[in-house]
Design goal:
Layout (H helix, E strand, L loop, with lengths): L9 E4 L5 E6 L2 E10 L7 H15 L5 E8 L2 H6 L14 H13 L15 H19 L4 E9 L6 E3 L4 H7 L6 E3 L1 H4 L5 H7 L2 E9 L3 H17 L14 H8 L6 E9 L7 E2 L8 E2 L4 E5 L2 E4 L4 E4 L9 E8 L2 H12 L12 E3 L6 E4 L6 H9 L2 E6 L2 E6 L16
Parallel strand pairs: 3-4, 3-5, 5-8, 6-7, 7-9
Antiparallel strand pairs: 1-2, 2-4, 6-8, 9-15, 10-12, 11-14, 12-13, 14-15, 16-17, 17-19, 18-19
Helix pairs in contact: 1-8, 3-4, 8-9
The structure holds zinc ion.
């Protein structure tokens, strides 16, 4: 059913900066926050959000809840680069976020643990503004909050999602008919989405395809529309041009596994002179021992068979490539059941695993237990490997508070 009149739906214009725009539904409901250009050289998300917001307001689509588009790294976007001083998707460690939040609360400079002002970077300023923006969106929210972080890749790629593997994030990702890639968060420290797990907001990253491809804009549009519908903000078929959006998106990832996880990360630094061999598509199958790149020491081969993932075809970035492999759906089911019955709380009873001395959410592993069986079992229970001052520990992911009660449907 198409609603064409909705007198209280408000289009809120963007401020030509942080806020790309917003559409406030006529009825209360979930808030969907979309973030585009967290990496400045990935503009597809901005264009996609502008199009979705235009269609919503031009057609006065009736909505239950609110959609907001935010720009991630404004300075890098203007410069057309991934980042200016540091990657804005690697700076969301607890301590740093707490320091920035404190500066917002108290005013003045961001100070480190010793009270000294932190050395400013372009991205520190961006992060401060973003955190302020999240706080103000939180204040306006009229229901549970969901965050979509819109990205593109330097290589050609089928669309996929990435997430911290909590049950609520997983449920959100599985609403889209594209592959879900698990385990990236364990390889990458300080990604922005971790912050939303702390707040209990469901969140996923959506990777739409190559940075400059027109199809990347369409993928982000399709994903946002599908999720607005799946989360109950709009009624099925109420947005013009809907039709077979889900089928279109599914076709873009045809033939790929539904769930994969990261088995290997090839880290590079500038001195490595790493050069990926040209022509690898994301998710392309590779064999163990296959040469994928060169660096100053010579050929770079993968030790693992699987699918090459996020091959580096741009100058900035410290991930040369990853290897991912299919994860059985059964694994997802088993892990959901184990976490639901609270088996994760008994992780400290496993042989070789001990509760962490001063972190209630973590365990430490005896040296002999640091093998893929024990670590694999802890992954199943929702633990993630992290380094801290005491060495390598496994930390339980924070599950969100669960969906808040929905407001009662309004008679219409
Ligand atoms: Zn990105």
């Amino acid at each position: 059913m198409k609603h064409t009149t909705s007198p209280t739906a408000i289009e809120e214009p963007g401020d030509h900066g942080r806020r790309i725009g917003a559409y406030r539904g006529s009825d209360p409901g979930p808030l969907v926050i979309c973030i585009a250009t967290l990496h400045g050289n990935e503009p597809a998300g901005i264009e996609a959000l502008a199009r979705v917001l235009d269609v919503l307001s031009e057609n006065r689509v009736r909505m239950r809840g609110d959609l907001v588009g935010l720009c991630g790294n404004l300075q890098a976007r203007s410069a057309g680069t991934r980042f200016i001083d540091e990657d804005l998707n690697r700076v969301w460690q607890h301590d740093r976020v707490d320091a920035v939040l404190e500066s917002l609360r108290a005013g003045g400079a961001v100070r480190d643990g010793d009270g000294a002002p932190m050395v400013g970077s372009a991205e520190l300023a961006e992060q401060r503004e973003l955190l302020a923006a999240f706080q103000s969106e939180h204040r306006r929210a009229r229901g549970p909050i969901h965050v979509l972080d819109l990205h593109t890749t330097s290589s050609e790629s089928a669309p996929f999602t990435t997430l911290g593997d909590t049950l609520q994030n997983r449920a959100l990702a599985l609403r889209l008919p594209v592959p879900v890639v698990l385990g990236l968060e364990e390889q990458i420290d300080g990604a922005m989405l971790h912050y939303f797990d702390r707040l209990g907001w469901a969140n996923i990253g959506i990777e739409a395809g190559q940075h400059a491809a027109a199809s990347s804009i369409e993928v982000h549009e399709e994903a946002v529309w599908i999720l607005l519908e799946a989360l109950g903000l709009i009624e099925a078929g109420s947005a013009p041009g809907g039709g077979d959006r889900r089928a279109r998106l599914a076709r873009r990832a045809e033939g790929l596994p539904r769930v994969l996880d990261v088995r290997y990360r090839h880290v590079v630094s500038e001195e490595d002179e790493f050069r990926m061999h040209p022509g690898f598509r994301n998710f392309e199958l590779v064999e163990a021992g296959q040469e994928l790149a060169t660096d100053r020491r010579g050929p770079v081969r993968t030790a693992f068979a699987g699918r090459v993932f996020l091959p580096l075809y741009q100058r900035q970035g410290d991930d040369g490539f990853f290897i991912v492999r299919q994860r059985a759906r059964l694994w997802l089911t088993v892990s959901r059941v184990l976490r639901t019955i609270g088996a994760d709380r008994m992780a400290g009873w496993l042989p070789g695993v001990r509760p962490h001395s001063d972190r209630g959410d973590a365990v430490t592993l005896a040296r002999w237990a640091r093998n893929r069986y024990v670590i694999g079992y802890l992954h199943l229970l929702g633990f993630i490997a992290r380094s801290d001052s005491g060495g390598r520990v496994m930390v339980r992911r924070q599950e969100g508070p669960g969906p808040r009660p929905e407001p009662p449907p309004r008679a219409s």
